[in-house]
Structure formats: structure tokens, C-alpha cells
């Protein structure tokens, strides 16, 4: 049962909620998946000897690591782009916050996801020092 | 001031008296056991944890006495091991986390303008589990079997071969404390998301609440692997399984992975609420809003996520692949950046202001100084070559004490002095408080700074003495003198606070001119906290308003309607998770013995395991489960007339369902815990698989796929039937109860079939690590399924007796949470099937 108090706030022009939440949490989730996947590829790939399989002079483990990093960097970038577009390019600190906190999710989300994108990039750098094995 | 506070307005005396009586706890021992109010329980958490802090402090003085001079035999190696194990365990498990949880349980409802937390009975249960867990750990002293494997309990040292009964005290006590921690975490997370007052959108949420929310989520994902690991180790020790026993295909490193997956976030679980304290106190004493509020929230979120990506930097010397270690080194550097953001924001807030250098701010300044040093050494030990040099030396001891005492204890003492007037109604003496700060600050640095140097000189940690030839006594004497000064400082702080309870001057509502909502209610706050829900428009609702807009009249009307209402039963306002818009009322339970009885049941079960009386342990655990079932079936009562009146006047329901309700979110929290446990078990399976030459180990046969298909096929069918139940309930067609009955029957069929499967496999759980993980993973699913079937049967029984129509919100909510649980059981079962049955055939 939705009361009049709640109904009076609904806006039809706002971006869909999933876009807001994706902008807000997409970067963090991409980072989580990135760390878990590079850990799993590193631990399981190196221990099982999969790093000895080479393709174009680069080990299979390194290819997998590069692939996982590229995909999840793409997810984080998508969160940044969606958040940036929904927020109209604004990054609002507490001086003049918008009335609708949903908008905050986008404004805040694209910056947060950009920071996670940066962390994914930093974590991906070591891959290029181990292209031919673990 | 931009909101209405807790003062009564136009309410008649009878309503007022009824409201006051509704929120009172019973007097005496009865009230002590049965109270469910967040403030007495939060205070009790804090007092109990401070007592454990004092105990751990005494133990640390014994350690320092032993280490003062070379070749000392004051304690001897055995007692030294016991003392350092209990010192570390007490500080980490019995003091730091429970204290921040107690502080959050006390403050979060006040800061968000709620009358209580979302699940008051769970708060009571959590407290008793915490106390009983701590007592079980310390009962080891009475039994003469003190644990001695360190606070980290590395295997194989903590295995049955090398550690006696003391470690069982440790594991069972810790298990109970972890359950308490998880209870409080779910409580804090759901309360923060759903019980914020009118208008408190995410961007108006105090930073302490943000940090508690993020720490709560971290506890859910961090504590669960440790709870699972302690359970597996206890099974290794008592039932003879082999998870961590390399002789039978287990792995000692698996323990380290599971432990540090908890262990590193644990540091941030303690640190984040402490930073929330700092972010609250700094603006008050600088007399201006915090700088870069949103960046601080971003930093908190980044720390919350990234702290889970650091566990391997505790394992640099265990022979991991280099590339893997570098990923974790990179993550460690990233988390330092996020911490730095907060430090700059605090300095920027203080910069150019004219701060009041009272005791709380002194502790904060001390924190900034010490934590920066601890953070710098953190970056050093996150660098692999440096860590390889200083690993297991006193440099690491110095580093983590700088982080934990500087990063957590200093802010927590700042918080104690800051909120003491709210807790007690009295002001602590400023002069004595400042003296306490200086003693603690000087004592701390004299104790721990020399340990950096001792580490460089190669003094090993966890060893009871050192030879005189190393010439380390000078630094050790300094450290011991520092420890005595530090202890004197803490004693002075404690005396100052206790003295002020009787002699301190009256504090009034807001002695510091704080900006957050807790300062709007009397000190100490009444049982209900807020007679009338505040309407919030700013981050600092008690300071002159920065937002030009008036709250909408509709919102003010909601607040006025709820002024001292409902009077005859406990309730608080439910709002939406993002904007803080009113959605419904949340009815809350009154005092009850039920959570206490459930906790006693689990205490008896743990004690029976220690006494090796396993049948009693099982009986007590079943009793406790039954009591919890009784608790779940008995929802808080409401007075129908008043409820209907409020519904009509508010235009809001008195009972909510779906994502609007706390019950839905609570179930989501429980499922997050179970999903984390499942993930840790699946990880353990593949980890053991990876390091085994042969799988299944020791020539065991592959699992029988046909039997697996039959059992798990029945489970999947039950899920499909439940989808039908859900569909007919939503469309108000068919018989949802009948479909749920069908799902329950199929669920029971799965349990029977899978039990038969497990009883007929040609090996026992004690055969090898493979057998242990096979049985445990499938046993976990059986337990989840049994709980799910019990929930379904309970719901059906209740629905048949209940006068409520199927589409009533309360009835809808019951269906929703039971369905959520069963869907989880089905998905978890299919994952377990793919792991234990399919994967050995495919990989």
C-alpha cells in the first residue's frame, strides 16, 4: 500500500533505478569481480602449470588476466559513463545537494566508479611484468 | 534549527503516560535479562567490552614484564604463549569489534532519528551470545586449559596434535562471539537503511552512520568465513575431519586464506567506525561542517570494498605465485590512498577554524599523528621485499599497534569522552581528561615506537624471550616503562569518566553544540529516544539551516501524527532506503526472555562439546533452534483500533511487506551470510582440489551421478513448485498454501534422498580431506534445506490458524521471506551439486 506521501514524490522523467544503482555500485562490483578473477587465475593457473602454454609469446595465464581485466575495466567504465550522463556531468559535494537523493546516486556514483576504475588499472599493471609466466 | 526535536507537543496526559510506559524496560534482574531497548544493550556491549579491554591490558603488562630484560623466565614459554594468545584474542574479538558495535547500536538510532533498531530481540540475543562467548574463552583459565596458538590459531599448531582443550574453548567461544557480531551487523545495516527519519536521504546521513553501515556490511562478508573456518577446525579437532591436515590431503594454508579473508577486513571493521567518530567530532570542535563529505563517503566505500582484496599481503612468505602477490600489493597501496583522503578532509576541516582543544579533540589529534605513522609503515609492509625482511619481527608488532591503537582506540576514547554526557547526563572533568590523553599519548609512543627498531634488529615476535647478546634490553626497558605509563593513562581516563557520573556537572541536551540528532534529545535519552520523528533537511539538523527549503507540509503532518504515538505498542517509522520518505510503521517487540533462553541453549551446546557430551550438545542446539523458531512465529502485538486510526491519518500502512519491510531486508542479510558461507566452502573444495595430486583423493570412487541427479532434481522441482506458489499468491489465484505445502513435501523428499545418498557412499567424512569437504558441503545444504522446510511448515501452520487474509501485508511478508529462503536453498543446492558431483567428472 503506497500512501499519498510517497506517491507525491514519484517522477516520470528520472532515469531508471537500475541505472542509478549501477552507476553507484557498478565500479565496486567490477573491482570485486576483478580481484577475485585475477586471484583465481593467478593461483589456479600458475599452480596447475597453465602458464607454460604460450600464445604470441604471452602465457595463457597472462592472456586470461588481460582478458579479465579488460572486461571488468569495461564494466567499471560503463558505470562511469552511465552515471556521468544521468548526472549531466555534475559532481556535487554537500554545498548544494539535489532534493532527490536518487540523483545523488548518479552524481556520486560516477566519481566512485571512476575511482574503482583507477584501482582496477593499478591492479592490472603487474600483469605486464609477468607476460611469459608466473 | 531545521527540525523538530523530541519535545512533546499537543498530546493528552493519558496518551503520554501510556507512551512512556510502553517503552519502559522492566525493573531489576528481569529487566536486565529481558530488555530489548537498543540503548541499555548498546551500553552493556560497551561496558562489557571495556572490561575485556582492561583484562587484555593486564595481560599485555605481563607480556611486557616478561620481555623487559633478556633471558627472563618470569612467565616461561608456555604461559607466555597462553598470555599472548588471550591478549590478542581479547583485544580483537572481545574488545574492538563489540565496542564499535555497541557504540553503533547506541548511537545509530539516535543519529538517524529512530526510536529503536530494526530487530530489538536480535540485539538482546547478540549481547548474550557475546557475553557467553567471552566467558567460554576465559573459562579456559578456570579449567587450566588456556589456548596457546595465537589469536590467529594457525594450523597445524592449532590442530589436535599440538593444541589441547584450550583451543576448543577458544574456537567455541569465538564462534559464539562471531554469531553476536553478525547479529549486530544485520541489525545496524537494516536499521540504517530502513529506519532513518523523515527526510534523512543518503546525502544527509551522518558520517558515523555511513561508516557503521559499511562496517556492518563488511562484518557480514568478513565474519562468515571466519565462523566457517572455526567450525571446520573444531570439526577437525573433535570429529576427526581433515580440512587442515596435510597428512590426509588437507591444507594448512587453507586456514590462512579463510582466516585472513576475515582478518584483514577486521582491521577496517574496527577502523571505519572509528573514522566515523572522528568525522563527527572534528566538525563539532572546529564549529564548521566537515570538508568533502561526499569524498569521505567515497573513501569509506572504497576501503569497504578494497579491504577484502588485501588478505594475501599477510601471506607473502607462504610461497604464493609472485604475480598474485603483486595484485594484492597494488590493492594495499590503493587502500592507503582512500585513507589519505579522509585525513586530508579532517585537516582541511580544522584548518583555519578556531577549534576547542577539549579532551575529545586531543584524542582525535593524537589519532591523526599515530595513524599516519601506522599507515606509512603499512605501505612499507605491503611492499613484498620489505615484508620478507621484517615478517614475524617486532616491526610488524609496532605497525599493527600503531594502526589499531592509534586508528581505533584513540578515536574510541575520543568518542567516549564526547558522548559521555549523552550516555550519563554528566560532563567529564576536562583537566583530568586532558591529563589522561597526554599519559596515553606519551605512554603509547614510548611503548611501541622502539618496537620498530627492535624489528629492524631482528627481534622475533611471538617468542617469550631473547638472548642478552642481541643487546635489545634498552629498547625493551623503554617499551615496558611506556606500557606502565599507557596503563596509567587508561586508568586516569576510566577514573575521570566514572567520577563524573556522580560529581560531573549536568550536561543538558547538547553540551558541545553538536549538529547531529542525538543531541536533540535529553541526556541520557528516554527509552523511546524521539517522542516525535524529526524532520531533517540538512546534514547537521541542529545547526543553522543551509537548505533554504521548508520541509513539505505532508512530511510535517506525518511527524505530528506520530508524536507520542502509537501509545499502546512499540513502533517506529519506516522510510525508503535512499530518500528517507515515509513508507510505513514498523512495529517493535517489547521485553522478552526468549532470546536469552536461545543463547543459553547455545551456551549449553558449546559447554557440552567441551565436555565431549555430543548427544547433549545436539539436543541443546535443537532446543535453541526451537526457541528461535518460537521467536520467529511470535510477532509483536499491536492494538488494532490505534493501528487503524494511525493508518487512516497517515495514509501509510502499519505493517509493510517486500523491500519496504525490515523483515525482507533481514532475510536478505541472513541469505548474504549463508551465501558467503557457501562460497567459502566451495572455495575450500576447489582449493583442496588444486593442491591434490589425485581427486577424489586416495583412490576414492567418483560420486554417483545418478543418485545426485535424483536428490538434487527433487530439490530443483521443489523450487519450481514454489515459483507456482509465488505466482498464485501474487495474482490471488489458486492456493499458494497448497503449493507451498507441495514444495515442503519435495524439500523433505530431497532431505530423505540425500541423507540416504550420504549414508551409502563408500567412505566416511574422516577418510580424507576430500571426504571431509564432500560431506560438509552436502551437509550444509541439508541443514539449509531442513531449516527451509521447517520455515515452510511453520508458515503453513500459522496461516491455517491466522485470521489474516492471504493478501494482508503481514501474511505477504511471511510468504516472501520463506520463499526467499527456499529459493536460496535450491540455488545453493544446485551449486553444491555442480561442485561435489559434477566437477570431479568434468575437471
List keywords for this structure.
heterodimer, A: 134 residues, mainly alpha, two-stranded antiparallel sheet, 4 helices, elongated, disordered N terminus, B: 843 residues, two-stranded antiparallel ribbon, 24 helices, 68% helix
Gist?
The complex is a heterodimer of chains A (134) and B (843). With 134 residues, chain A is mainly alpha-helical. Chain A is 64% helix and 3% strand.
How would you describe this protein?
The complex is a heterodimer of chains A (134) and B (843). Chain A has 134 residues and is mainly α. Chain A is built from 4 helices and 2 strands, in the order H-H-E-E-H-H. Chain A has helices spanning 4-7, 17-47, 60-86, 101-124; strands spanning 54-55, 58-59. In chain A, strand 1 and strand 2 form a beta hairpin. In chain A, helix 2 (17-47) packs antiparallel against helix 3, helix 2 runs parallel beside helix 4 and helix 3 packs antiparallel against helix 4. The longest helix of chain A has 31 residues, at 17-47. In chain B, 68% of the residues lie in helices and 1% in strands. Chain B has helices at 13-22, 28-34, 38-67, 76-112, 120-143, 166-194, 207-238, 252-286, 293-306, 322-350, 359-382, 384-390, 394-424, 430-456, 473-503, 553-561, 594-610, 614-633, 640-650, 662-690, 705-730, 736-760, 769-801, 809-842; strands spanning 571-575, 582-587. In chain B, strands 1-2 form a two-stranded antiparallel ribbon. In chain B, helix 21 runs antiparallel to helix 22. The longest helix of chain B has 37 residues, at 76-112. The model of chain B is unreliable at 1-8 (pLDDT under 50). At the A-B interface, helix 1, helix 2 and helix 4 of A face helix 9, helix 10, helix 16 and strand 2 of B.
Amino acid at each position: 500500500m503506497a500512501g499519498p506521501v510517497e506517491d507525491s514524490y514519484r517522477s516520470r522523467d528520472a532515469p531508471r533505478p537500475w541505472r542509478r544503482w549501477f552507476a553507484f555500485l557498478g565500479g565496486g562490483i567490477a573491482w570485486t569481480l576483478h580481484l577475485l578473477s585475477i586471484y583465481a587465475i593467478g593461483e589456479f593457473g600458475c599452480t596447475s602449470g597453465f602458464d607454460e602454454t604460450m600464445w604470441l609469446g604471452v602465457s595463457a595465464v597472462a592472456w586470461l588476466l588481460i582478458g579479465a581485466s579488460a572486461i571488468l575495466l569495461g564494466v567499471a567504465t560503463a558505470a562511469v559513463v552511465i552515471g556521468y550522463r544521468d548526472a549531466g556531468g555534475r559532481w556535487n559535494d554537500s554545498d548544494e545537494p539535489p532534493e532527490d537523493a536518487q540523483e545523488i546516486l548518479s552524481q556520486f556514483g560516477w566519481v566512485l566508479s571512476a575511482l574503482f576504475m583507477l584501482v582496477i588499472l593499478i591492479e592490472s599493471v603487474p600483469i605486464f611484468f609477468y607476460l611469459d609466466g608466473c | 534549527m531545521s527540525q523538530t526535536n523530541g519535545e512533546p507537543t499537543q498530546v493528552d496526559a493519558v496518551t503520554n503516560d501510556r507512551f512512556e510506559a510502553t517503552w519502559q524496560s522492566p525493573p531489576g534482574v528481569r529487566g536486565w535479562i529481558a530488555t530489548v531497548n537498543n540503548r541499555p544493550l548498546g551500553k552493556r556491549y560497551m561496558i562489557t567490552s571495556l572490561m575485556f579491554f582492561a583484562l587484555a591490558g593486564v595481560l599485555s603488562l605481563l607480556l611486557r614484564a616478561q620481555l623487559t630484560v633478556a633471558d627472563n623466565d618470569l612467565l616461561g614459554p608456555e604461559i607466555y604463549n597462553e598470555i599472548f594468545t588471550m591478549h590478542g584474542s581479547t583485544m580483537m574479538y572481545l574488545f574492538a569489534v563489540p565496542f564499535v558495535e555497541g557504540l553503533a547500536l547506541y548511537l545509530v538510532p539516535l543519529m538517524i532519528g529512530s526510536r529503536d533498531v530494526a530487530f530489538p530481540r536480535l540485539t538482546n540475543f547478540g549481547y548474550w551470545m557475546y557475553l557467553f562467548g567471552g566467558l567460554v574463552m576465559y573459562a579456559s583459565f578456570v579449567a587450566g586449559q588456556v589456548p596457546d596458538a595465537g589469536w590467529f590459531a594457525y594450523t597445524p599448531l592449532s590442530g589436535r596434535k599440538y593444541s589441547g582443550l584450550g583451543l576448543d574453548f577458544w574456537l567455541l567461544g569465538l564462534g559464539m562471539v562471531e554469531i553476536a557480531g553478525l547479529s549486530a551487523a544485520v541489525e545496524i545495516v537494516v536499521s540504517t537503511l530502513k529506519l532513518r527519519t523523515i527526510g534523512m536521504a543518503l546525502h544527509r546521513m551522518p558520517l558515523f552512520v555511513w561508516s557503521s553501515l559499511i562496517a556492518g556490511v563488511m562484518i557480514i562478508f568478513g565474519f562468515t568465513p571466519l565462523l566457517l573456518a572455526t567450525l571446520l577446525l573444531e570439526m577437525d579437532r573433535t570429529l576427526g575431519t581433515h580440512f587442515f591436515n596435510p597428512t590426509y590431503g588437507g591444507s594448512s594454508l587453507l586456514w590462512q586464506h579463510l582466516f585472513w579473508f576475515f582478518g584483514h577486513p577486521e582491521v577496517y571493521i574496527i577502523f571505519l567506525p572509528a573514522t566515523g567518530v572522528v568525522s563527527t567530532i572534528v566538525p563539532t570542535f572546529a564549529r564548521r561542517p566537515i570538508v568533502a563529505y561526499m569524498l569521505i563517503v567515497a573513501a569509506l566505500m572504497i576501503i569497504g570494498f578494497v579491504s577484502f582484496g588485501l588478505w594475501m599481503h599477510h601471506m607473502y612468505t607462504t610461497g604464493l605465485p609472485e604475480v598474485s602477490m603483486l595484485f594484492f600489493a597494488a590493492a594495499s597501496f590503493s587502500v592507503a590512498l582512500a585513507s589519505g583522503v579522509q585525513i586530508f578532509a579532517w585537516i582541511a576541516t580544522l584548518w583555519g577554524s578556531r577549534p576547542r582543544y577539549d579532551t575529545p579533540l586531543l584524542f582525535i589529534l593524537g589519532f591523526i599523528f599515530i595513524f599516519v605513522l601506522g599507515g606509512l609503515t603499512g605501505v612499507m609492509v605491503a611492499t613484498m621485499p620489505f615484508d620478507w625482511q621484517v615478517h614475524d619481527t617486532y616491526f610488524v608488532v609496532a605497525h599493527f599497534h600503531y594502526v589499531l591503537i592509534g586508528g581505533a582506540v584513540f578515536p574510541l576514547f575520543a568518542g567516549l569522552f564526547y558522548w559521555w554526557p549523552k550516555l550519563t547526563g554528566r560532563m567529564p572533568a576536562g583537566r583530568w581528561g586532558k591529563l589522561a590523553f597526554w599519559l596515553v599519548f606519551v605512554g603509547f609512543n614510548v611503548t611501541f615506537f622502539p618496537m620498530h627498531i627492535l624489528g629492524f634488529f631482528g627481534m622475533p615476535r611471538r617468542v617469550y624471550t631473547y638472548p642478552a647478546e642481541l643487546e635489545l634490553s634498552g629498547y625493551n626497558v623503554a617499551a615496558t616503562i611506556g606500557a606502565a605509563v599507557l596503563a596509567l593513562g587508561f586508568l586516569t581516563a576510566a577514573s575521570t569518566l566514572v567520577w563524573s557520573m556522580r560529581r560531573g556537572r549536568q550536561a543538558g541536551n547538547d553540551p558541545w553544540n553538536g549538529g547531529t540528532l542525538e543531541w536533540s534529545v535529553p541526556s541520557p535519552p528516554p527509552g523511546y529516544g524521539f517522542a516525535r520523528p524529526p524532520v531533517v533537511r540538512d546534514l547537521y539538523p541542529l545547526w543553522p539551516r543551509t537548505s533554504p527549503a521548508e520541509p513539505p507540509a505532508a512530511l510535517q503532518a506525518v511527524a505530528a501524527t506520530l508524536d507520542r504515538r502509537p501509545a499502546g505498542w512499540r513502533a517506529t517509522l519506516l522510510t525508503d532506503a535512499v530518500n528517507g520518505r515515509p513508507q510505513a510503521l514498523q512495529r517493535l517487540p517489547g521485553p522478552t526472555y526468549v532470546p536469552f533462553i536461545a543463547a543459553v541453549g547455545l551456551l549449553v551446546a558449546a559447554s557440552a562439546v567441551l565436555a565431549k557430551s555430543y548427544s547433549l550438545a545436539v539436543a541443546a542446539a535443537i532446543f535453541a533452534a526451537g526457541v528461535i523458531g518460537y521467536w520467529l512465529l511470535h510477532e509483536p502485538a499491536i492494538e488494532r483500533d490505534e493501528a487503524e486510526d494511525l493508518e487512516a491519518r497517515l495514509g501509510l500502512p502499519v505493517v509493510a511487506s517486500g523491500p519496504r519491510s525490515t523483515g525482507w531486508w533481514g532475510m536478505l542479510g541472513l541469505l548474504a551470510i549463508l551465501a558467503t558461507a557457501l562460497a567459502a566452502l566451495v572455495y575450500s573444495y576447489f582449493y583442496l582440489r588444486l593442491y591434490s595430486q589425485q581427486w577424489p583423493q586416495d583412490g576414492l570412487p567418483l560420486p554417483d551421478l545418478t543418485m545426485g541427479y535424483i536428490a538434487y532434481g527433487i530439490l530443483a522441482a521443489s523450487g519450481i513448485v514454489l515459483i507456482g506458489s509465488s505466482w498464485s499468491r501474487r495474482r490471488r489465484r489458486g492456493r499458494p498454501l497448497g503449493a507451498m505445502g507441495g514444495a515442503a513435501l519435495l524439500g523433505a523428499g530431497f532431505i530423505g534422498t540425500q541423507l540416504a545418498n550420504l549414508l551409502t557412499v563408500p567412505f566416511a567424512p574422516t577418510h580424507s580431506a576430500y571426504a571431509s569437504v564432500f560431506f560438509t558441503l552436502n551437509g550444509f545444504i541439508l541443514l539449509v534445506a531442513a531449516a527451509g522446510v521447517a520455515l515452510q511448515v511453520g508458515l503453513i501452520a500459522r496461516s491455517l490458524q491466522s485470521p489474516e487474509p492471504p493478501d494482508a501485508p503481514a501474511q505477504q511478508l511471511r510468504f516472501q521471506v520463506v520463499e526467499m529462503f527456499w529459493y536460496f536453498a535450491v540455488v545453493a543446492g544446485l551449486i553444491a551439486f555442480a561442485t561435489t558431483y559434477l566437477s570431479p567428472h568434468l575437471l
